[in-house]
Specification:
globular; 2 domains; about 280 residues
C-alpha cells in the first residue's frame, strides 16, 4: 500500500506554514499598490467580525441551560466577553495576522498587474513565485559553534571508538569549521535555500524558526514555496574564472564569486542559477 497523503486544511482551506517573512519589503509593495494596505485591513476586519459572530453564536447556544428561572429559560451569551477578548488582542498577534494577510494581497496584486512569474527563467528584477524541492544550507550550524571537546569525550565512551576514529573526527570538524567560517564571512546572518535553478538567500532576522528547528528542515522532503525577486545570477563557478578575476577593481565581485564557488563544492549549484531575495517562504 502506498503512503496516504495528509492534507493540512481547515474547512477545505489549505494551511500555509510560514517559515520566513520580510515585513518591510511586503509593506513597501503594499504601499505601492493603491489599495494594498486597505485591503489587508479590510480582510482582517471581516475575519475578526466573522469569528466574533461565530463564537458569540456558539456560546449563546451552549449557554441555553434550560433552567427554569421565574417561569423563563436562563440563557447566557458571552458575545461581549468575546468582543473584549478580540479587542485586547496582543500587538504581536495583530502584526502576525496583518503580515500573513499581506502576503496574499501582495501575491494577488502582482498577479493582477502581470508582474509575477511562475518560472525561474525571467531576467533580473522579476518577481517570482516558485514551488520546488529544496536543500537547506545554514552556515552557522556547519561546525563552528559545536563543542568539539564534548563530542570527542562522547566518542571515547563508544565501544567501537579508537584513535583512528578520533583522528578522522578532528579532520572532519576542521573541514566543517573551514566551510562554516568562509560561508559566515561571505553570507553573514543568512540561510540559503537551493531550489531548482536558483539560490534563495534569506536574512535570519526574518525567520520564524530557531536554529534547532532549521535542522528539522534539512531532513524535509516537502516542496517549499518562495515568493521573491530575482536580483542577479551566478556568472562564474569554474576556479579559473573565479580566481583569474582577482584584481583590485574586481574585489567586490571576487568575494561574491568565491562564496558561490565554495557553495558549489557542497551543493548542486550551476552557473546561471538565479539569485533570489525572498519576501516570504512557506509550505502550502
Amino acid at each position: 500500500m502506498g503512503k496516504k497523503k495528509i492534507n493540512f486544511n481547515i474547512r477545505g482551506k489549505r494551511i500555509k506554514e510560514y517559515i520566513y517573512l520580510d515585513g518591510i519589503e511586503i509593506n513597501s509593495l503594499l504601499a505601492q499598490f493603491e489599495d494594498g494596505i486597505p485591503q489587508v485591513i479590510q480582510s482582517i476586519k471581516q475575519t475578526g467580525l466573522s469569528n466574533s459572530e461565530t463564537v458569540s453564536k456558539e456560546n449563546t447556544e451552549k449557554g441555553k441551560l434550560g433552567i427554569a428561572v421565574a417561569g423563563g429559560e436562563y440563557t447566557h451569551s458571552s458575545s461581549s466577553q468575546n468582543d473584549q477578548t478580540y479587542n485586547s488582542m496582543s500587538q504581536e498577534a495583530i502584526s502576525t495576522v496583518y503580515s500573513d494577510y499581506a502576503v496574499d494581497i501582495v501575491t494577488n496584486e502582482l498577479e493582477k498587474n502581470k508582474l509575477l512569474k511562475l518560472t525561474v527563467q525571467p531576467e533580473e528584477g522579476t518577481y517570482v513565485q516558485l514551488t520546488s524541492s529544496f536543500e537547506l544550507i545554514d552556515p552557522a550550524s556547519m561546525g563552528s559553534n559545536i563543542n568539539r571537546s564534548a563530542f570527542k569525550e562522547m566518542l571515547k565512551w563508544s565501544d567501537d571508538s579508537n584513535n583512528t576514529d578520533l583522528k578522522e573526527f578532528d579532520n572532519t570538524f576542521n573541514l566543517l569549521e573551514s566551510f562554516s567560517t568562509i560561508l559566515n564571512d561571505i553570507f553573514p546572518n543568512s540561510i540559503i535555500l537551493k531550489i531548482h535553478h536558483a539560490l534563495v538567500i534569506a536574512n535570519t532576522e526574518n525567520l520564524r524558526m530557531t536554529s534547532a528547528q532549521l535542522r528539522m528542515l534539512s531532513l524535509a522532503h516537502r516542496k517549499i514555496t518562495i515568493l521573491g525577486k530575482i536580483e542577479s545570477q551566478i556568472d562564474a563557478l569554474d576556479p579559473n574564472e573565479v580566481f583569474q578575476s582577482f584584481a583590485p577593481q574586481m574585489i567586490p565581485q571576487f568575494f561574491s564569486r568565491m562564496g558561490f564557488f565554495v557553495l558549489s563544492t557542497i551543493s548542486d549549484i550551476s552557473k546561471n542559477d538565479r539569485l533570489i531575495k525572498p519576501l516570504a517562504i512557506y509550505f502550502n
